[in-house]
Amino acid sequence: MEKLTETHEAESAGRPADGLHGADVVISRSREGVAWEARAVLFDPPGLVSAQLRHFALQVRRALEEREESSVLVTSALPGEGKTLVACSLALALASMAGGRRIALVDLDLRRPNVARALDATPRVGLERILRGEPTLREARLRTDFSALDLYLVAGPVPRVHELLATTALPELIEALSKDYGTVVVDAPPTLIVPDVELIAPHVGACILVARAGMTRRTSFQEMLALLPEEKLIGTFLNEARLPRRAKDYHYYAAPDEAEDP
């Protein structure tokens, strides 16, 4: 697959563009609409949520650098545990402090793609067509108003996904993206429902497991652990965990009218 580097020139990393300067998608900073939690890092600049998400993003980036890897897969045991929320939040947090790095957010949940819905974006060319070898990877790229962040989305549910993921197109896709981006965040399907993650995981550099407080069962989480390559696991993200009492101290540093400028 072709490189994308030549299309990245003159793009300042980490700052939102004006929405008119080459951006295909302007990501909403509003709490309105569906899946707004996936964009929380954008409209909660001085608050604890965005601070915690950036802490998480820095830990992921450090773990990848230590492994000399650039791609990370985000999955959960079962649906409804918040993997897409975590994948989007991670990509946005990384883009907000990119420091010259470029970030790709890739939806590889081909059966029930949700990244487009979470970010209110419409793909021109679905990633599923790239895996079939039809258009070029460049045609699937969606530039966002965060100049450091690009999206690669799925146009709609795909039949016989396991057949598509078993071809050489998948490792070629991840390799091509890894050459052009500092970090590639992959939103993958739930691990226990379909075999897709077991097909994707060997080709990424690392894996993050998502659990949801009060919902994810210990047995399900253990089953997920057994199916994934242990050497690629770099951590777990617990959704809806109760915050520690000391969390209120963060507000000491927050300017009430501070505006987000990733």
Attribute tags:
disordered C terminus, 262 residues, 14% strand, globular, Rossmann fold, 10 helices
Number of helices: 10
- SSE order, one letter for each helix or strand: HHEHEHHHEEHHEHEHE
Rounded to the nearest angstrom, the radius of gyration is 18 Å
* Overall morphology: globular
Output the CATH class name.
Alpha Beta
In spatial order, strands of the major sheet run 3-4-2-5-1-6-7
Percent helix among the residues? 25-40%
Task: Report a brief summary of the structure.
About 30% of the residues lie in helices and about 15% in strands. The chain is α/β, with parallel strands linked by helices and about 260 residues long. The longest helix has 20 residues, at about 50-65.
Helix-strand blueprint:
Layout: H1 40-43, H2 48-67, E1 71-76, H3 83-96, E2 103-107, H4 115-119, H5 127-131, H6 137-140, E3 142-143, E4 149-152, H7 161-165, H8 169-180, E5 183-187, H9 196-200, E6 206-212, H10 218-227, E7 233-239
Parallel strand pairs: 1-5, 1-6, 2-4, 2-5, 6-7
Antiparallel strand pairs: 3-4
Helix pairs in contact: 2-3
Describe the structure.
It is a single chain. The protein has a seven-stranded mixed β-sheet with strand order 3-4-2-5-1-6-7, sandwiched between helices. The chain has a single domain (12-242), classed as Rossmann fold, CATH 3.40.50. The protein is globular and about 45 Å long. The longest helix is centred in the first third of the chain and has 20 residues, at 48-67. It has helices at 40-43, 48-67, 83-96, 115-119, 127-131, 137-140, 161-165, 169-180, 196-200, 218-227; strands at 71-76, 103-107, 142-143, 149-152, 183-187, 206-212, 233-239. With 262 residues, it is an alpha/beta fold. Strand 3 and strand 4 form a beta hairpin. Helix 2 (48-67) crosses helix 3.
